[in-house]
Design a protein that fits this description.
Chain B: It holds the Pfam family FAA_hydrolase. The complex is a heterodimer of chains A (281) and B (251). Chain A is mainly beta and 281 residues long. Chain A is built from 5 helices and 18 strands. The longest helix of chain A is centred in the N-terminal third of the chain and has 10 residues. The radius of gyration of chain A is 18 Å and the shape is globular. The two termini of chain A are 36 Å apart. Chain B has 251 residues and is mainly beta. Chain B has 2 domains: 38 residues, FAH (SH3 type barrels); 210 residues, Alpha-Beta Complex (Fumarylacetoacetate hydrolase, domain 2), CATH 3.90.850. Chain B is built from 3 helices and 19 strands. The chains are: A mainly beta (281), B mainly beta (251). The interface between A and B is medium-sized, with 39 and 31 residues.
Chain lengths: 281, 251
């Protein structure tokens, strides 16, 4: 899909300049989540209009971030011939999850540091399901009751070809999980199982994906995960990582857009650059 | 000093061990039998080590790894001393793992081995249960094996670093229904505590109250409903819990 087709598509699904979405956000200057209304050209907060870059955005999430492997059909199909071989032996049965620990949390318009000795990192554009209340052994048909809303996540990883052992060294680096800019409340999203995910590198559209392509739909994923572990309010479940994710190198800016939610933008820098906030990562 | 977090008198309290009793921060003394024990620290990131004792690695048919096999756990899996751990009805193999848990005391990055102990605040005990029926060869050990609710009892005490002379020379024991089943020493770790802190902090920031579960020695056997499991580490304490069946849970 090119840019013209994309704009035509957005008009078709009713994303217009007049819409305002109710969302929750976290800023450096405030404690806790703030109610905001997101429009096409501005953010409304406490009754006043602001430009998006006038805020210092923090991750709207401080709970546990769980990622899911092999939940986009294209990725699952691409590995199908490997599943019966060593070391995997058979295809995955339950959702294969991983944790993005707290040192990875990062935010909209903040920098992501690429570790020394690594040329480029994967940018895994995905949708985050934000849990609204304690979910234990939830049934698929009730799953949306446990959702607060949705956000955009860039699950940054050092490229790795094997999925046999936990990818801590690849996925748990400082700042490797930009989230945000905000959490759009679930009632604002007509069908979360049909959202386009667009990835831009330096303003060029480089990857298109859709939550229509999930192996386990959002309610099914919540059912199959909460069957063995409790999801708490404020936790986030990532719906999956795309097949053949794009790479980012120092100097690149990656923007991920998801229909009805917004766009999450981060610049990638060398490890030896101080990021905003004065912290070396 | 030995510290605990307990629920009693209608609130959650910090407490210290005092001659076999518990003393709350407000001075009240209470019998340990009259409290609900909570995990002794509010854990941040929870790291766990697989195959970090060579004898356990060979016991489950692996050679010891050349690089630490690290996995992460979520907060849902932690429970306190004297808690219940759920054993799903249809599983064949569920085993305990007695482990020394190292608690990080301050934020750090790129620590050298010789300085590693400066970043430790203390120690506790974890029982890192595994349900092997759910093993899959993707990000193994996968979360369905290790991160189920109630699968990681931790405590009873958080013991200050200063009170543990040599954490790399502590005896570990596991008793099932009073019978000794597992015995080892932290001396036999493949990757010792300073190495693990250097390794993890070489690629990520460690924060206060992050916890590293350092792996388990040989002697893991299946446990079933009704078993009382005690994991003990010399100088740190005895952590007890009970295996319960699905029927205790209404869902």
């Amino acid at each position: 899909m090119n840019e013209g087709e994309r704009i035509a598509y957005l008009e078709k699904i009713g994303v217009t300049a007049l819409m305002m979405y109710h969302a929750k956000a976290r800023f450096s200057s405030t404690t806790g989540l703030e109610d905001i209304w997101v429009g096409a050209s501005h953010i409304q907060w406490k009754g006043e209009k602001f430009a998006e870059d006038s805020f210092s955005w923090q991750s709207p999430i401080i709970g546990t971030v769980y990622g899911t492997l092999f939940n986009f059909r294209e990725q699952l199909e691409a590995f199908r011939t490997e599943f019966d071989k060593a070391p995997y032996q058979k295809p995955p049965q339950r959702p294969i999850l991983y944790i993005k620990p707290r040192n990875t949390l990062n935010a909209h318009l903040k920098e992501v540091a690429i570790p020394n000795g690594i040329e480029a990192v994967e940018v895994n554009a995905t949708l985050g399901i934000v849990i609204g209340k304690t979910a234990v052994k939830v049934k698929e048909q009730d799953a949306f009751h446990y959702v607060q809303g949705y956000t955009i996540v860039n699950d940054v990883s050092v490229p790795h070809q094997t999925f046999y052992r936990p990818a801590i060294k690849q996925k748990a680096r400082d700042g490797f999980c930009p989230i945000g800019p905000w959490v759009v409340l679930k009632d604002e999203i007509p069908n979360p199982d049909n959202l386009m995910i667009w990835t831009f590198k330096n303003d060029e559209l480089i990857q298109v994906n859709s939550t229509k392509e999930l192996v386990r739909s959002i309610p099914r994923l919540i059912q199959d995960v909460s069957e063995f572990m409790t999801l708490a309010s404020g936790d986030v479940l990532l719906v999956g990582v795309p097949y053949n994710p794009s790479l980012a190198s120092p100097g690149d800016t990656i923007r991920i857009e998801i229909d009805h939610i917004g766009s999450l933008e981060n610049r990638f820098v060398h490890d030896n650059v101080l990021i905003a906030g004065g912290e070396r990562v | 000093m030995k510290h605990a977090r307990v629920a009693c008198y209608g609130a959650i309290h910090e407490a210290v061990e005092a001659d076999g009793t518990l003393q709350l921060m407000d001075g009240r003394i209470i019998d340990p039998q009259d409290v609900v024990w909570l995990p002794p620290i509010e854990a941040g990131t929870i790291f766990a080590l697989g195959l970090n004792y060579a004898d356990h690695a060979s016991e489950i048919s692996f050679k010891a790894p050349e690089e630490p096999l690290v996995f992460l756990k979520g907060p849902n899996t932690l429970i306190g001393h004297c808690g219940q751990t759920r054993r799903p009805a249809d599983v064949k193999t569920m085993h305990y793992e007695c482990e020394l848990a190292v608690v990080i005391g301050k934020k750090t990055r790129s620590v050298k081995r010789k300085d590693a102990y400066d970043y430790i605040s203390g120690y506790t005990i974890a029982n890192d249960y595994a349900i092997r029926d759910y093993l899959e060869n993707y990000y193994r050990p996968n979360l369905a094996v290790k991160n189920r609710d109630t699968l990681t009892p931790i405590g009873p005490w958080f013991v200050d670093k200063e009170d543990v002379q040599d954490p790399m020379n502590l005896k570990l024991y596991t008793y099932v229904n009073g019978e000794l089943k597992q015995e080892g020493t932290t001396r036999d770790m493949v990757f010792d505590i300073p190495f693990l802190i250097e390794y993890l902090s070489s690629f990520m920031t460690l924060n206060e109250n992050d916890v590293i579960l350092t792996g388990t020695p040989k002697g893991t056997v299946n446990v079933v409903e009704g078993d009382e499991v005690v994991v003990e580490i010399e100088g740190i304490g005895r952590l007890k819990n009970t295996i319960v069946a699905d029927k205790v849970f209404a869902r």
